[in-house]
Amino acid sequence: xxxxxxxxxxxFARRLRRTAPSxxxxxxxxxxxxxxxxxxxxxxxxxxxxxxxxxxxxxMAVVAFGIYIPLLPPPWASAVYAVVGITxxxxxxxxLLAVSIDPADPSVRxxxxxxxxxxxxxxxxxxxxxxxxxxxxxxxxVGSRVKHCSNCNKCIADFDHHCKWLNNCVGGxxxxxxxxxxxxxxxxLLVLLLLVLFIFIEAMANPALLRTSPHFDSxxxxxxxxxxxxxxxxxxxxxxxxxxxxxxxxLALVSFLLLGHLLGFHIYLLTRNMSTxxxxxxxxxxxxxxxxxxxxxxxxxxxxVSVQHLPHVETTIxxxxxxxxxxxxxxYQDKGQIAGPLSxxxxxxxxxxxxxxxxAVTSFxxxxxxxxxxxxxxxxxxxxxxxxxxxxxxxAAQGFxxxxxxxxxxxxxxxxxxxxMKPMVDHQQQQMTLPPQELP
Length: 440
Description:
10 helices, 16 strands, two-stranded antiparallel ribbon
């Protein structure tokens, strides 16, 4: 029975440039490389950018040498032919060399047979392709500046980068060909921009300056123009000539900006004695701590914002609020429960704590033993004590025995300053539990 992993790995589902182990239940976690390594930029398959580059080059050469340069007056036509021709020829030669040169390491080119399949890398044994200056795919010893290109699938000496426009790696062997290709293309596009701009302006302002060729003598109408002079003269309209000039100017401008940026970047690398690969690695190491700091700052800011959005909670003490329970009430037989507010001394202490939050206070000073408390109905606590004493005298006059324990005891106060009548209440409850005595 065929295992499930082998059934899935068929020729249609296999990726040609897989550089990581395949996931699944397969026991053989091997990297499936391309069947063969690439020799140079002409090795199949060709990249789409490579085709676009050759199409743009061909279009610029046709419009420059076939349409716009022949319209110039005789003294300028020869000079522009020479400048543009040399520039385009340099670009063509450098471009062909950069694509055709094999930039592989000399040890790879000496041993490698490109007609044989690429060896397979076992990630269980070798986590990296190049380890200890030995490439486990090319199976050769390499230098310190050698990198294994996954697109070309071979080790490149003095690796700079893999260029999609050349469909080839840029290394020590073809770097200067690549640099001349970029520089000549930028220079040729700059000359072409000036040429097309001159033709566009003169065709609208002074068309007679562009109609100096002998082939225009047989044409009577000023709105008819000739292209592909002098070999194959073809008639066209002025509008068509101007539209083509405008489209060519835009295409040349975009190409010039891109190539100019690339040329400036490589000039900067040459002044720093760096390669593109070195620059990318340096940027990664530079941006890694910055990204960590930005992530930490964002997390800290998010935490601070969440704390700021929390509702503000302030602990307040109401000095006029009644205290619950027996410690804040005077219980009478007929008056019910009477609540008393917090003492002024406690509020004074709390005000001091608010004004001096740094002062750690673990205990409160001794509070006064007697504090006048106003009861509901305008009755003070002292009046309540007087009423209790009068009741005791009346009960003694009626023949009830006089209380000995707790008699004349002052009203007890709790540490918060509230009157506590629990001792009196307990004494009254004891009196009520005594057996009644007969009156005389």
